[in-house]
Amino acid sequence: MVDSVTTLPGTGRTWSRPPFIKKPWVRWGVWLAVAIYLFVAITSMEVDWSRVIEGLPRGKKFLLAFLPPNFASRWDSIVDGIYESLWMTVTSTVVGIGLSIPIALGAARNLSHPIVYYSCRGIVALSRTFPEIILAIFFVKLFGFGPFAGFLALSIATIGFYAKLLAEDIEDMDAVQAEAVKATGAGWLQWLNYAVQPQVMPRIIGLGMYRFDINFRESAVVGIVGGGGIGATLLTAFDRYEFDSAAAILLVIIGIVMAVEYSSGIIRNHIK
Amino acid sequence: MLRLEDLGKRYKTGDQALTGINLEVPKGQVMALIGPSGAGKSTLIRCVNRLVEPTAGRAWLDDLELTALGSGALRRARRSMGMIFQEYALVERLSVMENVLSGRLGYVGFWRSFARKFPQSDIDQAFRLLERVGLDHMVDKRADELSGGQRQRVGIARALIQNPEVLLVDEPTASLDPKTSRQIMRLICELCKESNLAAVINIHDVLLAQMFAERIVGLQLGEIVYDGPPNGLTPEVLTQIYGEEDWAATIEAVDDDDNNVEESASGR
User: Fold this and answer.
1) How many Å apart are CA A228 and CA A77, to the nearest integer?
2) ipTM of this model?
């Protein structure tokens, strides 16, 4: 059969993929602009090589100070900090998701009246405007040092992340399944429970675990500005130049993040 | 009895989907609605249970004016209109039983349905219907594990457990193979006869429509251009509905035996 193809006469027509940007002068102009920007950016970067070379042995000494990690001398405060961080993570994830779900329903264009839609989108946009650390500074000023400020900061930050992504998943759901349940005469809550929830459930769980992971890592950051948790312990270790203890704390954080990551992978494989 | 009076629908985009539809479907009648894509078949049946809001005219189910109902009353009225869909429209992550029982949502309260504690009479009826459509051994399978024909059977059970007075059926066989299509059409027609239901069936396949429906309505550009018995579909009528084409084979096949029909249907 292959032979018969080759013996056929050519059509005299050629084909190549049409370019993404149609006008050639725009296409080449974009490339030129990128090249000029890169050239200017690289040449204008000032690197003082003598300072880099001076800094290298200092950096080596600094890194060596982390070794070996010392778990023993500050073990009690590490345990306290981890407990506090985990408390902050669990509560802020649960509360954040609890607040996020109704907001996500409101922020889904296919479910909501435009007024509700825009106000819920507004809440999401507002909470996304501020990173966790800014929120934490704000709540520390309001409520004083400690994990409560961290918990509030992470709860608010969770809304911006979770409600936005869940709302997008709700907007992507299969409208026909939803229509079918509506056609049975189901009430609105029943409709949510039977038509919407089953379709977005994997997302609810998957995002929840991802956010748990993020909140744990962020709990270390909010601690540095006074939000309590393992971040506070870490900051104390740095302030006292106890780099070996700091290394131990970092290792514990890495271990917990990896454990969360690994178990969330397992759970996500089970829900499909 | 389902009665449409001068029903019309103009979409916000300006498209006039339906104009001046007058139609009466008495109890127990299986009516097929044929017409080219975009003729307004889906819009018509969705205007009946107001998944699409009609913009003109009225729709009646017995003495109830559907087009005049508020949202609560509409919800109650929807219970007596079962709907069957083209792509089955089962909630894929729910089990077969949950999908069938979702047909009872209009009758039970939220917390009962939330806890999946339906009245025993509903569960009995669900089992009876699943037995009737031959799926009572798959009660706890998830809907997305079923084949196309099986899914449509679940869709039929979901519509029937509503205890409807009328069935609105939107392209029930469009995603099925020819043999399954005929089984599904036969099942729908038998069930309509058993419970004395009126049925409006949108269908692309003229042959299937002629085989199973006792009355055919042809829709073209949102208007009824044919309303009569299946054997009244002459080449002239089909040309009027669908446009110029060689209709001889379509019409001949109706008189032939089943195999012939299946072949020409699968050849489409």
Assistant:
1) 12
2) 0.84
